[in-house]
């Protein structure tokens, strides 16, 4: 059975956290995915999760935190019930400019994640679109990351795959066996939802989620996280997106 979670980054502009979690529970969502800023106040996060009855099986964790305090990070994630940790982003000024640079970055990811993996966590990388821009040498950074180490898995963000101009179905098939979690993010038709950065509620954009769901099942992926980077109404986004996935 596929677990459907909600990335709490979607609701960063809709405080307080406790109200967000209760709204998600009322919608029918039972799990969430955390992100770095929430780890700054773990007491509030644990309290809100307990009050709402939601679980947090996965979380985005900054690479700098993993490298600077692996033991503390492991302890904190364990307290929160997290089982999967994903490094979520690389700032534009820090992105490699060639294949050797991407290989070095992938090796850095592997080393940073070793303590987590040894502690029993699933560990991986969460993509945006820049990993799908070919290097001057003709390599795809996403391929370099995916092949760096068997224990470095992927949280494949299908909205960003679409935005990068790649076929989500072919991309899922390409990385089958490496995908531990899928980010379910929809793209609005050209010119629509400009006030929401061109993203759409899941099932209300251009992506064929029925076909994607079947392909993800074939690839053995059973953990979905719905996401919208800038919804005007997070309750609308959560309820409509959850309904779409329930209908598949």
Report on this model:
Keywords: Isomerase. One of its GO terms (molecular function) is isomerase activity. InterPro entries: IolE/XylAMocC-like, Xyl_isomerase-like_sf, Xyl_isomerase-like_TIM-brl. The protein is an alpha/beta fold. It has one domain (3-247): TIM Barrel (Alpha-Beta Barrel). Helices cover 41% and strands 17% of the residues. It has helices at 17-27, 42-52, 63-68, 70-80, 99-118, 141-146, 158-163, 168-174, 209-218, 234-247; strands at residues 3-7, 31-34, 55-60, 84-87, 122-126, 153-157, 179-184, 186-187, 199-200, 223-226. An 8-stranded parallel barrel has the order 1-2-3-4-5-6-7-10. It has a two-stranded antiparallel sheet with strand order 8-9. Helix 1 (17-27) runs parallel beside helix 2 (42-52), helix 1 (17-27) packs parallel to helix 10 (234-247) and helix 8 packs parallel to helix 9. The longest helix is centred in the middle third of the chain and has 20 residues, at 99-118.
The tally of beta strands, per DSSP, is 10
User: In CATH terms, what is the architecture?
Assistant: Alpha-Beta Barrel
Strand order of the largest sheet: 1-2-3-4-5-6-7-10
Distance between the termini: 12 Å
């Amino acid at each position: 059975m596929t677990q459907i979670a909600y990335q709490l980054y979607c609701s960063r502009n809709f405080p307080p956290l406790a109200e967000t979690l209760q709204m998600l529970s009322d919608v029918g969502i039972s799990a969430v995915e955390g992100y770095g800023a929430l780890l700054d106040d773990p007491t509030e996060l644990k309290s809100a999760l307990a009050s709402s009855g939601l679980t947090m099986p996965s979380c985005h964790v900054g690479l700098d935190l993993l490298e600077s305090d692996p033991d503390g990070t492991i302890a904190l994630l364990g307290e929160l019930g997290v089982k999967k940790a994903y490094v979520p982003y690389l700032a534009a000024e820090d992105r490699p400019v060639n294949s050797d640079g991407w290989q070095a970055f992938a090796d850095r990811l592997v080393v940073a994640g070793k303590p987590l993996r040894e502690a029993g966590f699933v560990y991986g990388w969460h993509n945006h679109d820049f990993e799908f821009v070919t290097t001057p040498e003709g390599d795809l950074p996403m391929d370099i990351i995916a092949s760096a180490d068997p224990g470095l898995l992927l949280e494949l963000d299908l909205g960003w795959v679409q935005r990068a101009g790649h076929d989500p179905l072919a991309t899922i098939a390409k990385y089958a066996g490496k995908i531990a979690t899928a980010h379910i993010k929809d793209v609005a038709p050209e010119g629509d939802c400009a006030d929401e950065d061109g993203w759409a509620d899941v099932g209300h954009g251009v992506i064929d989620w029925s076909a994607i769901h079947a392909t993800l099942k074939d690839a053995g992926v059973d953990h979905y996280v719905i996401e919208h980077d800038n919804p005007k109404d997070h309750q609308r986004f959560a309820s409509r997106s959850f309904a779409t996935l329930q209908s598949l």
